[in-house]
Structure formats: C-alpha cells, structure tokens
Design a protein that fits this description.
Order of helices and strands: HHHHH
Helix content: over 70%
Radius of gyration: 15 Å
Number of strands: 0
Length: 104
C-alpha cells in the first residue's frame, strides 16, 4: 500500500509540477512555455518577456500538433511532460526538438 501511494505521489509530481511552474493547464502548453523561455534567455531584457508572452499561444498550438502527429498512439500530455523534464535537465535538448520539427 505504501509503495502504491509513493508511486501515485511521484506520478502526480511529474504531471503537476510543469503545469504549476509554467502556469498552464496542459503539459504541451508547459513544454511550449519552457521552450520559449529557454530561447528567450540570451536576449533577456524588457522585450524578452514581452515577446514570449506574444508568441506563447502559437507555440502552444504548434507543440501540441507536432506531438500528436509524431506519437499518434501515445497521449500527447505524456510525451510533452517527458519532453518538459528533459528540457529542465538539459536545455540544449531544445535543439533536438527543433530539428525534429524541421524534419517533418
């Protein structure tokens, strides 16, 4: 019973942290938000956050559609949550995601 509760807590943390950290309602939205923040880091300044705010809705849609096309048999939220954690661990992974999008 304790192991089931531990697994549930870990799964909830993996799923809920990206949503809470990025202030979104979906894992793909959180992934898009994190990717935009990583891309905007070198150009931080007054315009950096404004451009992220303006581009974010387009990125949310694009990421969700791309994940659904690439992994049609896996729920997109699961893939996006995995990609989100990968971006947190390795911000250079964003180049891999972009290259996969260009290949399609």
């Amino acid at each position: 019973m304790k192991s089931a509760v531990a697994v549930l807590v870990i799964a909830a943390t993996i799923w809920c942290y990206p949503l809470a950290a990025e202030g979104t309602l979906g894992a793909c939205d959180a992934l898009a938000s994190q990717a935009l923040h990583i891309q905007a880091r070198p150009a931080q300044g007054p315009q950096g956050l404004d451009s992220v705010t303006l581009i974010k809705p387009v990125g949310d849609y694009f990421v969700s559609e791309t994940v659904q096309r690439r992994y049609p048999l896996v729920p997109s939220g699961i893939v996006c949550a995995g990609y989100y954690w990968r971006l947190l661990a390795d911000p250079s992974f964003i180049g891999t995601i972009e290259n996969q999008n260009d290949a399609e």
